[in-house]
Amino acid sequence: MAEHEEKAGESLMEKIVEKIHGDGSSSLSDSEDEKPLELKAKIYRLFGRERPVHQVFGGGKSADILLWRNKKISAGALGVATAIWVLFELMEYHLLTLICHGLILVLAVLFLWSKATTFINKSPPRLPEVSIPEEPLLQFASVIRLELNCSAATLREIASGRDLKKFLAIISGLWVLSIVGSWCNFLTLFYIVFVLLHTVPPIYEKYEDKVDPLAEKLTIEIKKQYAVFEEKVLNKIPKGLMKDKKH
């Protein structure tokens, strides 16, 4: 009887241990199943963005135009920009000449229209009063002022020498922009940027799941090359005077 009770106790203990290990393994498996979900949620996005492309561009009417949410308005904006570029760049039209010719055409049409109504015994058309509202101009000036102040603050921070990586990035960007500026005039450059803003974001939004992995690989490679450059070149630059002043 005693041996039977001991065997029953041992079998009971083995069942309890197996149950504990089973629950532990199940909890571990559950945690392991949850980890891939967490990793899947942290997907690399271009430039480290955490918001959709539409919200990155402001999420308003300007974003709708750039991402072709309203195809008529987007096509109209791109068509107007193309017409302006063709007039001033290909046909070598001048801004003052265009304004004068436009005013001549509008005034001539309105004058002939008002004179034609007198021959057919009708009252002349009442021309609308044109006045520029003050509030939109003040808002536009305020936005320009804020952007200029932010740009000045950014340039001041870069020039202070606190962030070497940002300094090199800005210098490289300005150097590339100066080379591009030597190839074409400001109007052509503005038109190229305008066309890129109306073509690259919608294409990226459509194929972002394919572009982001490639961008991640490229970013990793750039970081590796920068680490090599920093180790071989930047770390050999003397920094004694600035550090002594700070300490």
UniProtKB/TrEMBL annotation:
<keyword id="KW-1133">Transmembrane helix</keyword>
<feature type="transmembrane region" description="Helical">
    <location>
        <begin position="73"/>
        <end position="88"/>
    </location>
</feature>
<feature type="domain" description="Reticulon">
    <location>
        <begin position="62"/>
        <end position="247"/>
    </location>
</feature>
<keyword id="KW-0472">Membrane</keyword>
<keyword id="KW-0256">Endoplasmic reticulum</keyword>
<dbReference type="GO" id="GO:0009617">
    <property type="term" value="P:response to bacterium"/>
</dbReference>
<protein>
    <recommendedName>
        <fullName>Reticulon-like protein</fullName>
    </recommendedName>
</protein>
<dbReference type="Pfam" id="PF02453">
    <property type="entry name" value="Reticulon"/>
</dbReference>
<keyword id="KW-0812">Transmembrane</keyword>
<dbReference type="GO" id="GO:0005789">
    <property type="term" value="C:endoplasmic reticulum membrane"/>
</dbReference>
<dbReference type="InterPro" id="IPR003388">
    <property type="entry name" value="Reticulon"/>
</dbReference>
<feature type="transmembrane region" description="Helical">
    <location>
        <begin position="167"/>
        <end position="197"/>
    </location>
</feature>
<feature type="transmembrane region" description="Helical">
    <location>
        <begin position="94"/>
        <end position="113"/>
    </location>
</feature>
<dbReference type="InterPro" id="IPR045064">
    <property type="entry name" value="Reticulon-like"/>
</dbReference>
